[in-house]
Amino acid sequence: MKQAIGIDIGGTKITAGIITDSGKLLRREDIESDPSDREKMFARVLEAVEQLFKKTSFSLADIEGIGVGVPGKVDCENGIAIFQNNLPWEQFPVIARLREQFGFERISIDNDVYMAAFAEWKAAKEKRNETFVYVTISTGISCSIIQNGSFFRGAGFAGELGLIPVLFKANNGENRRLENVAAGPAIKKLAKTELQSDQISTKEVFEGYIKGACEFLPIIDEVTDNLAQGLYAISCLLDPHKMVFGGSVIVNNPFLLKLIKEKLRSYLLPEQQHILSQMSISTLKQDNGVVGAGLRVFERL
């Protein structure tokens, strides 16, 4: 059995884990990010790896390499984090810096959603000649597409589902980007407007809905309709064989998938409805990013 280090880097936290070549997560450590400065942020990445080794019996000699998932646009070939909304790493040479620190020749870097998608694709044991889509609904909304066993990247920015405009009925029917009307912060903002309350949280919106509080019903109705519109665009463009959902919003509130399917059904033609039976929520949950990063050390798409 071979092991690799997977690192999932975000603006809030960094997760480092030891992953086997079969995709088993042996150990993970989470530490807070420090996005105030590019070097401080990199120091936190190193600290996450150091903490990982302190808590296990593994040493660098037991590790095949490192895989890293980073938000935003990434130059995979040259190992550079090009652009992010939530990190100070514009044009940051991640692979070169990690190689300098740890000495590994085998280091892989990619967008964090792509890393999570790879883990989900491997877990689903999808056929290589099919189209697989992973959708994350969390602080942001994005997706990754694996077609014929390879990532579909476009010119480098493919999969930005959150940028697709949808009809936002709650605001006089204007077009808004999906991420701005259905991601975690957007749900909180919608609740604030609908309920005239600055104190409501996204979590409380879902808890209130589950309890049947009527004031939360139109909020969830709006959010799920917005998501269905975005997913309909994906269905029309790609007609995927399978779609897996991850991200804290839907993983922590799995009832959303049933509601989304009901809304999506009304948009789909009969010939498109096969996707409804092939939509599921991640079984890897919050581990998919770090697992995918580790697995990419052993296999590259």
UniProtKB/TrEMBL annotation:
Domain of life: Bacteria
Family as reported in the entry's similarity comment: Belongs to the ROK (NagC/XylR) family.
MF GO annotations: kinase activity
Pfam family, one: ROK
Provenance organism: Peribacillus simplex
Keywords: Kinase, Transferase
Protein name: Kinase
InterPro entries tied to this protein: ATPase_NBD, ROK
